[in-house]
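P.,

For your records, the input lines for the assembly:
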Amino acid sequence: MIVVLLPAYNEEASLPPLMPKLRQVLRTMGEPYRIVVCNDGSRDLTAQLLQGLELDGDLDVITHRINRGLGETSRDLFERAADITGAGDVIVRMDCDDTHEPEFIPRLVARLRDGYDVVVASRFAPGGGQKGVSAYRAFISQGANLFMKVFFPIPGLREYTCGFRAYRAETIQQAIRHFGNNFIQLKGLGFTCTLEKIVKLKLLGARFAEAPFVLRYDNKQSTSKMVSSVTTLGYLVMTIMYHWPRGGWRVQARQRSTMSDAA
Ligand SMILES: Nc1nc2c(ncn2[C@@H]2O[C@H](COP(=O)(O)OP(=O)(O)O)[C@@H](O)[C@H]2O)c(=O)[nH]1
Ligand SMILES: [Mg+2]
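Structure tokens returned:
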């Protein structure tokens, strides 16, 4: 089974073009699928649109009555996905602002089944790219990715900030068992959770690969919800928590693996 997770905050303009494309791609993949949307306190017509879309029977909606942010939303989506999946299943998380084209999903899933735990849709892999991104945003995004490559290096990975990824369901289940409430710990810090997830999975020994994808920012209808100051603060907080010499995430992970080697 393939489970697609969509965090949605004021996406009334993007759900109508995205959903038919997504369903069409999933139907051609020849295995059962489920779409889970978290409507995070949207103040536009997102809730009404989802009510109509639910009638097809392939969609579950999680509702936050008040906006809680992407961190809390990701937690709810991934916990739900872990509950409804089993061995061999795949979890795909993408934006629902219509900039992540569903046509890339089959390649992500195929690459995952080559023997990886996480496959990242990457603008920086050969054949990848981005359309409609302003020079300023491209510059900021490149800087952020460089920062992450230096402080959280993951071999084979060039794309750290884009949330379009496929995960082996068992990898997510293992991470939730292992980290519990702390799998996504940095909740009030904007989009930091997108980076935290892969860093936590790397600490568990997950195998990563990339598949090229073209970000279609030229299709974006909704305004970006990324608050760069909050997210930048989140990256800095995470860098400290990860590298802190006493009890930081990295040290804790090393201690755990030494203990299990000794056992
Ligand atoms: N649930 C939830 N989703 C959010 C929030 N902010 C953004 N999103 C969703 O997260 C995804 C990424 O946000 P987006 O505006 O596309 O950021 P950008 O692509 O970096 O400009 C989209 O699917 C949004 O609807 C939020 O506060 N709560
Ligand atoms: Mg987006």
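Two observations worth noting. Residues 7-9, 11, 38, 40, 67, 69-70, 73, 95-97, 99, 224-226 surround guanosine-5'-diphosphate (ligand 1) (CB under 6 Å). The chain has a mean pLDDT of 95.

Regards
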